[in-house]
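Deadline looming. Please check this record:
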Amino acid sequence: MDSLSFLPDTLYIQLFCLATTGRIANLKNPTLFFEKQQWLKLHDQHPEYGELVDKLAVRKHIDASLGEGHCFPLLGKWKSFDEVDFDSLPNSFVLKCNHDSGSTKIVRDKTKLTEEDKAAFKKHFERRLKIDYFFRGREYPYKGIEPYLIAEKLMTDEANPGKDIEDFKFYCFNGEPKIMLVVTDRSTDCRFDFFDMEFNHLDITKNHPQADKAIEKPALFEELKQTAAKLSQGMRFVRVDLYAIDNKIYFGEYTFFAGGGFTLFHPLEWEKRLGDWIDIES
């Protein structure tokens, strides 16, 4: 869809919805979750959300909201890949852009990085740093963010060394978490499982299959819910991504448009239920 970036927002969104969901979004009287997310793009714009999706700027907001130490340690920031000093970085780390979504690369052992690996990283990040992520899905919070390449500490759970840490993604509506997505085995065989706020498993599928094993209730579940509620106050809809590592809660990111608003919940009754939770009347 990049070649259609010249199109006005409403037309672009309609075409993108049709291409990705097979449905024409009702943007005048939206009822489904994906439709209401598109409506929010067009009619509920808040300039301050740009700071919240910027993976550098949001750190100040989280420090002010939760206190210091709830963001993954920042190891460096650069305007271009050529500025990265790999010698100064620890043996394991994460590289990502601050102004987009999905650019993350994980380095678990830099001693095993070949020149070919670094060349591939360079090509990847040089391309990503040039992207104006706003035009991909017309997600207005990303508009105008100054792009950086950043490195963060690769977090691990000392109780489960070598295991991917679990993502806890809370779907919040006017400051109230309603459902939670747990992402497991991200780097090997990614699985999505949804739970209600009593930690009852929900028969929902979206993007990835459900796990083939039981998922344990996180020890900090109540604190995770409270943190998501605190961070989502005053927002019609936002997904708050959190982690619980070594008995401490860490912030991942704010997502105002889950999957850009271009992926559907199945069964489709959940599209209607989540859509009902977004109040566009007030």
Q: What stands out?
A: Residues 1-44+156-282 form one domain. The beta strands are 74-78, 93-97, 105-107, 149-153, 167-173, 176-184, 191-196, 201-202, 238-245, 248-255.
